[in-house]
């Protein structure tokens, strides 16, 4: 809305400049008496012109040249601005550290469960790395499952 008012004001100023230039060009052929009366009339008109009302408050937001809304530029760098900028970064770092801690704890629990299963089993740990044993598990478990199903 403020932008529309400034555009309208610019249009009025442009037309005023145009008419002023046209009047200046037309007054070159007038007598000295008439040109003095016109000069005095211009001065009186300018003296009676309404002064521009300037706001005493600075605007809370400004529109920059790209049309984006920005905050006041005279904020300065104080403690609260630094704290407000650093707080999200600290929360992110602590969140990432907590995620890493939970994942590491889960990984350690899984490794401990595997180790305890290996240590309490009757087979030696070398049997799990033997290729023949893996084939036995694949075929032996399926064969024993089908034999137990036939026996029932």
Fold and architecture overview:
- This protein has 152 residues and is mainly alpha-helical.
- It is built from five helices and two strands; from the N terminus they run H-H-E-E-H-H-H.
- The chain has helices spanning 2-26, 32-48, 79-120, 125-129, 131-151; strands spanning 62-63, 69-70.
- A two-stranded antiparallel sheet has the order 1-2.
- A hairpin with a 5-residue loop joins strand 1 (62-63) and strand 2.
- The two termini are 87 Å apart.
- The mean pLDDT is 76.
The coarse overall form would be rod-shaped
Give helix % range. over 70%
Approximate strand percentage = under 5%
Distance between the termini: 87 Å
Provide the gyration radius in Å: 44 Å
Q: Based on DSSP secondary structure assignment, what is the total number of beta strands?
A: 2
Largest sheet: 2 strands, antiparallel
Strand order of the largest sheet: 1-2
What count of helical segments does DSSP give?
5
Unreliable residue runs = none
Write the element-wise H/E pattern from the N-terminal end onward: HHEEHHH
Indicate the structural class: mainly alpha
Overall pLDDT score: 76
């Amino acid at each position: 809305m403020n932008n529309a008012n400034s555009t309208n004001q610019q249009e009025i100023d442009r037309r005023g400049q145009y008419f002023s230039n046209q009047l200046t060009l037309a007054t070159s052929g007038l007598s000295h008496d008439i040109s003095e009366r016109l000069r005095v009339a211009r001065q009186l008109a300018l003296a009676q012109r309404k002064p521009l009302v300037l706001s005493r408050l600075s605007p809370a937001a400004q529109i920059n040249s790209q049309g984006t809304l920005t905050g006041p530029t005279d904020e300065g760098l104080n403690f609260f601005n630094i704290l407000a900028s650093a707080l999200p970064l600290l929360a992110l770092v602590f969140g990432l550290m907590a995620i890493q801690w939970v994942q590491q704890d889960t990984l350690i629990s899984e490794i401990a469960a595997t180790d305890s299963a290996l240590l309490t089993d009757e087979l030696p740990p070398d049997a799990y790395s033997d290729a023949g044993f893996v084939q036995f598990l694949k075929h032996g478990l399926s064969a024993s499952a089908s034999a137990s199903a036939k026996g029932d």
